[in-house]
Specification:
Pfam families: B12-binding, Radical_SAM. This protein is 46% helix and 12% strand. The strands form three sheets. A seven-stranded mixed β-sheet has the order 2-1-3-4-5-6-7, sandwiched between helices. The chain has a seven-stranded mixed β-sheet with strand order 8-9-12-13-14-15-16. Helix 1 packs across helix 6 (125-137), helix 5 (107-113) packs antiparallel against helix 20 (495-547) and helix 15 (354-367) runs parallel beside helix 17 (415-436). Strand 6 and strand 7 form a beta hairpin. The protein is built from 23 helices and 16 strands. The chain is globular, with a radius of gyration of 27 Å. It folds into two domains: 3-161, Rossmann fold, CATH 3.40.50; 186-493, pyruvate-formate lyase- activating enzyme (Alpha-Beta Horseshoe). The chain has 609 residues and is an alpha/beta fold.
């Protein structure tokens, strides 16, 4: 069976300014296929190679695949759908498969608008894809597909979603096939070296309202640090990788394993061959302040901090457990450890004004990170924050959901004014850095790295790919009232997706009612038990003083327990109006309106909840 993977040809002028990034997803999927015995697989990186639709059709004709598979984040969904449309026309007998985060949560809309999609892989793809291929290979796929967990497809007039597949528990069994990539194409511009994006952990224990990674991966799982370093060593020795970024949402969450990872990097002498970067939280930097120089010794040179917003009010909106003061302190600590810092800001919410944009600039200049990015708030349609703000969203052209296009329109600004304000911040920050900081701060690697970052920004600016400025027609403040973001206003939320959201919202409302009823019931029982405690006070006091063989100082008594144990046993039932075992049973339903299994499935099928 021949499988052809395609990375969609989508560009937005965001992260691309730092270089060409290798699509790690295909390496992980191909590794799973190889282990399962499927070795006839091919990869077309239409994005990096700028493969046109006509060229893609020719490649399909040449390869004659049995299966065509592609993936999509939200902004690349239309290009992914077009990829499968071309496959339908050129190799009509091939099974057409779509995966990725957007299709996982928006499968109803995707299936409704793109009949060329035969089947969607929902969630973590390695095991689901292998099971899908086995079912397809067995024949009678119309029947066997129902037995594969983690799929979505159309059957007649009905959209079917099979039960969510379990997550991969043994993450150490994951072995990517990095050889599928043409490594000479993936260069990190600041250093001019090959770049990789390996994975140490999957998932995230935090639930930031604007993010969806925690919903996609569900469980937080960490690989054996030695196995991760094995993988990095192969990337260095076999593919000449000189820089990597850990793909984890926050690699420092598991402090013990992150330290083990750094120790292993040092023990193998890898910091002399490869440098690396991570994304992490401000709180982890403060926690590990005594270890930062050790991290730098392990080759960690670049940390991107999710400071998110300068105004504390915005931090609260995003459910970030940080403060403005902590952001500044974290950047100072990293600077002292000689680790490059990149501060990330989210702008463009409804309360954004010229004053708040100016506030972010003043604050970032006060903090003095090495790099700063202002990302437009992008309301991923499957996140909690989107559900709360849905009535304010006017643009449903997902190709513009790319962090550089102002999807949301602030009340006090036009979209053009918002873009101009952000560009004004960029101009001032990097002009000052270029003139007074980068050429004169430090020597050797530090100076080379900073000038390389400046080169990346200048290259994207001159080519007008930065922030999609060329496409929008932005040439400076004089053009802010004339910019055109070319929104496709015909794009709307699909009927099936809207119906699903409304049903989910209704279930969520009923779950909230159940939780409120349980709370009221708990209060009533607590009141009853408080009254019972008051009635029993004389007896309780006597027992505590030794009435059952115990002692007034709390030492062991004749009944096998001490004073503290007696108090604990008396008070635990008061927490929810029932015994401890009953409380444990209620804990999960009260959190999401259903049991643990229901929660896991709903995270993939019912994002609105």
């Amino acid at each position: 069976m021949r499988i052809v993977f395609v990375h969609p040809n989508y560009h937005s002028g965001g992260a691309e300014i730092a270089g060409s990034w290798p699509p790690a997803w295909v390496a992980y999927l191909c590794g799973a296929l190889k282990k399962a015995g499927y070795t006839d697989y091919h990869f077309i990186d239409a994005m990096t190679d700028y493969v046109s639709h006509e060229q893609l059709a020719e490649k399909f004709k040449q390869l004659q695949p049995d299966v065509v598979a592609t993936t999509a984040i939200t902004p690349s969904i239309y290009e992914a759908e077009e990829t499968l449309k071309i496959a339908m026309e050129v190799v009509p007998n091939a099974l057409r498969v779509l995966g990725g985060i957007h299709a996982t949560f928006m499968f109803r809309q995707v299936i409704e608008e793109a009949p060329q999609v035969d089947v969607i892989v929902r969630g973590e793809g390695e095991e689901v894809l292998v099971n899908l291929l086995r079912a397809y290979e067995a024949g009678n796929f119309a029947e066997t597909r129902h037995q594969v967990k983690g799929l979505a497809f159309q059957e007649g007039d009905e959209i079917i979603a099979t039960p969510a597949a379990p997550t991969i528990k043994d993450v150490d069994s994951i072995e990517p096939d990095w050889g599928i990539l043409n490594w000479k194409n993936y260069i990190y511009t600041p250093l001019g070296v090959r770049v990789a994006i390996p994975n140490m952990a999957r998932g995230c224990p935090f639930t930031c309202s604007f993010c969806s990674q925690w919903k996609f991966w569900r469980d937080y799982r960490v690989r054996d640090p030695k196995k991760v370093v094995d993988e990095i060593e192969k990337l260095v020795n076999e593919h000449q990788v000189g820089f990597f970024i850990l793909a984890d949402e926050e690699p420092t969450i598991n402090r013990k394993k992150f330290i083990e990872f750094c120790e292993e990097m040092i023990a193998r002498g890898l910091p002399d061959k490869v440098k690396w970067g991570i994304n992490t939280r401000v709180t982890d930097i403060k926690r590990d302040k005594e270890l930062l120089k050790f991290y730098r010794k392990a080759g960690l040179v670049h940390i991107s901090l999710g400071t998110e917003a300068a105004a504390q009010l915005k931090l609260d909106v995003f459910n970030k457990e940080t403060t403005v003061a902590e952001n500044k302190e974290a950047i100072r600590l990293l600077r002292e450890a000689d680790i490059f810092t990149e501060a990330q800001f989210i702008v463009g919410l409804e309360n954004e004004t010229k004053e708040t944009l100016e506030e972010t600039f003043k604050m970032v200049w006060d903090w003095q990170p090495d790099l700063a990015n202002w990302a437009m708030y992008t309301p991923w349609p499957f996140t909690p924050l989107f559900q709360e703000m849905r009535d304010q969203v006017e643009v449903f052209d997902y190709s513009k959901y790319n962090f550089v296009t102002p999807i949301m329109k602030p009340k006090a600004l036009t979209r053009g004014e918002l873009l101009d304000g952000v560009m004004n911040n960029y101009r001032r920050f990097y002009m000052r850095k270029a003139l007074f900081h980068y050429p004169w701060r430090g020597t050797g690697f530090r100076r080379r790295y900073l000038l390389g970052c400046l080169k990346a920004f200048l290259k994207a600016g001159v080519g007008r790919t930065f922030y999609d400025l060329g496409k929008a027609g932005y040439w400076g403040p004089q053009s802010k009232d004339k910019v055109d973001f070319h929104f496709d206003e015909t794009r709307k939320i699909g009927n099936a997706q809207m119906a699903d959201w409304e049903a989910s919202a209704d279930r969520a409302a009923k779950a909230a009612e159940r939780r409120e009823a349980l709370r009221e019931q708990g209060k009533a029982r607590a009141a009853e038990r408080t009254a019972a405690k008051a009635d029993a006070a004389p007896i309780f006091a006597a027992a505590a003083a030794g009435g059952c063989g115990g002692h007034a100082d709390g030492s062991d008594c004749g009944c096998g327990g001490n004073k503290q144990q007696q108090v604990d046993e008396f008070l635990v039932p008061m927490a929810c109006g029932g015994g401890k075992e009953q409380m444990d049973e209620f804990a999960m339903p009260m959190a999401c309106g259903g049991g643990k299994q229901q929660m896991e499935e709903d995270q993939l099928v019912r994002p609105a909840e």
